Amino acid sequence: MAAAPRPSTSGTPRRAVLAGAAAALGVVAAGCDADRGPADGRAPVAPVVTGRPPRGSDTVDVVRDCGARGDGRTDDSEAFARAYRHAESRVWDHVGRTVVTVPAGTYLVRRPGALLDADGSHLKANGLRFEGAGKRMTQIVFAPARPHDEDAAADTYLCRNNDAWANVSFERIAFRSATPGVSFFSSYSTGQAQDYRFSECEWTGEWGYGLALDGSNTNSEMRWEACRVGGAYRRAFLYSGLSHRTTDVAAQDQFLNYWFTDMKVEYEWGDFLDFPYGGSITCRGGSYIVTGRRPGGAGKDGPTSTFFRFPRGPHHDSVQRFHAEDIRFEVRGPDTVVIDCAWDSGTVHFNDCDDTAHAFRDFAAGTRPHRYRAGPRGPLVRYDSCQLSGHHEYRRQGGGPRTVRYDMCLFANHSQHDFCSAGGEAVRFVDCLGR
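The structure corresponding to this sequence follows.
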């Protein structure tokens, strides 16, 4: 592939770019009337686009155009790196214009950052797409030769976006870690990295992090649709607030708007979501299962694996909102926790969820799969039309009242009176049934 020109490096502020885009959309929406100009007679203002249109194809195929083998034995790192360089070279006026196509096959990648290695110091771009043939047809195996001790693995990522790209999508691709403890995606943002979409993707193998978010602004608007999260996670599949590049941990905020829809979350051990700095998170539909037990010494949490872990970290008063709806959870043992929340404000809401698949087993009555530690401002906790096993635990951090409400819920192992370990907190039951 011939060398391509460097991407646009215009210093146009982000708000100015968005304003220009809005003006362009206004002209399109006006249709033929746009030629008449404003009613007051002034000439219409058109957005200014600098530079020249990029050369090359809108689609780059890692096999046909970049030489990947996809045989599971040949290191295809350079082929993916060439495909990414082509996509980066075609950025024009901060807009990406390339789809990276990955045909069916198994692609061995040994080089960290081979799939995406972006630095925001020379690139601010919007729009990058990776498209496979299917999550069981296109598989990328990440197997760096770097020693996989805990410290080294923390910096070994298949994808790295350092405040460079927004609107990045991955479709119909499976990712497998073949070097235990390496990580999938590092995203650092001070206002640029955001709007990621994963559709019909899959993760297997043992990872350190799935996606690790760092920075002081945005890293938001991320969506997962019909994906399977398998494998195992030493830290978490999605972790907000890594603090590797952001030295001021109190500045880590704006972790907003994460949507998980129709997911198959079925992994061996580890945490699924870990949000110590708050966030706005919605999970709808699907099945959530921990199939194994965290190995001894694998993490500070001992044998426990948690789907939704929300500890309290030092930060400003960012949003703290979690909603789970129409999800079937399997609590296969006392070391599986659905939620462990220490947020000090906000809301937690479960609607039409069921974690009673193993409520018949001997251990179930003694489990505590839902755990809360909160202060005088909450969070407010509500369960609607849920079927729930074990006990729920509530502990206070500081004084003051808090409101917990269960509406038309079924308790599989205990009476309504014995269901909550509330520590004097205000818990209200409305039309609930217990044993």
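Residues 1-37 have pLDDT under 50 and may be disordered.
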